[in-house]
What does this fold into?
Amino acid sequence: MERLPHRLKMSMSSEIHKDLESSFTFFKRQPEKNFLPWVGHRLTPRMFQEEQYIYQETESISEVFFCCQGKIAYVLPRYDNACYYVAVKGDIFGLEDVIYNAHQLHGGVSDLKVMQKRKFYGDRRFSTMSLNISEALALSVPDLMKITSEFPKTIEVLYEDQSSLLEKLVVARVRQMDRCKQAQFTASGQMIQSVHLPQFTGLQVETPAF
It folds into this structure.
């Protein structure tokens, strides 16, 4: 895009901004006018195939995503990818891991600046998978961190929104894990019964004579 004629570049940039504002509530709510031109050319298109992992727990965090099309599920790989939350068009995903790690410090926007200074953003705390062919825009974490210093009001809005999402995700994941564990326990109990009960089928119990 940098090599395009200035007029064409501005026209394309304007269209990108309109698409962002119409598709994402966050871009409508962000309070700083220069933010959209700044972030627009830093977003990279991504496409994900059906049932493709986008990222998994313990991986290093390199990008956050803005969902353009499709459905992105938050899953539990250890429980056959049981789903507990779905991101759809207009949602941001992948940022909650950064917010989670920031909360491990003191739990504020200022902690993002600490992470930026250290150039260490932590590991993924969640796993996501596309439920169908999906499209997203990716923003690198280094660029995300630049927002903290260049657009402080915008990062506050983003941090607040994603902190609320993080709380929902943590609760939903714990509840889904409990359900999965209970299902495993129940299945295990049924398996034990199915193994042992046939041994007693037709067993004749004699009453002892006194």
Residues 76 and 177 are 8 Å apart (CA to CA). Residues 43-185 form a domain with the Jelly Rolls fold (CATH 2.60.120.10). Residues 191-210 have pLDDT under 50 and may be disordered.
